[in-house]
Amino acid sequence: MLKGLLLALITLMLPACSEPKSESPESVIQAFYQQYLRAFADFDPVNAEHSPMADNSPLIGKYIAADTAARIADLHQIYEQGILDSDYFTYCQDYAPEWVAALKVGKASPQADSVSVPVSIGIEEGKYLQLMVYLKHEGNGWKIYRVKNKTDNYEQNIFDDDAIKQARAHTR
Question: Which positions ≥6 away from 168 have C-beta within 8 Å?
């Protein structure tokens, strides 16, 4: 009897043990920004299509929500679209290698069906740019779907369909 009960208990526990554990939102943000900021600092426009920052890079595929990645790639195809006026993930025009070490990732806060994580990235003169990064669960992990510049209380609204429609009309 005890042997049967023990076997049943082990059988019930095995599936839970074999499920992969999702990384925490903070560790996802830390890993993404460490890699992305290095790539941003070392960006070579001549080899832009092979950059970790390229729309089709494995880095973007691993850490960015599919709808967000698709929207950004679509916007990059619109000449002078005026929606992405700086890099979406950093709100910067360029980045220096010595600033990468200043990255700070805060604690995740639950939202309705997502989490937000405060991120501080180093910028010139030892200052910081405060970002709020939003993640949602997609596939088997957390993915970034929205980034807001908290320092300047500004957000590049990449999901504004009317603005995108106007940008397309402007370039024709």
Answer: 78
Is 0.85 topped by the overall pTM? no
The list of the chain residues with pLDDT below 50 reads 2-20
Q: How far is CA 89 from CA 60, 95, 112, 150, 165, in A?
A: 11, 12, 22, 12, 23
**Interatomic CA distance for residues 121 and 136, integer angstroms:** 21
DSSP state of 100: G
Question: What is the tens place of the pLDDT at every residue in 113-127?
Answer: 899 999 999 999 999
- Strand 115-122 relative to strand 104-105: parallel, antiparallel, unpaired? antiparallel
Contact 161, 145 (CB under 8 A): no
Q: Name the packing angle between helices 66-76 and 161-171 (round to 10°).
A: 20
- How many Å apart are CA 97 and CA 27, to the nearest integer? 21
Q: Measuring CA to CA, which residue among 67, 92, 30 is closest to residue 146? A: 67
Cα angle for residues 155, 159, 165 (degrees, 5° grid)? 115
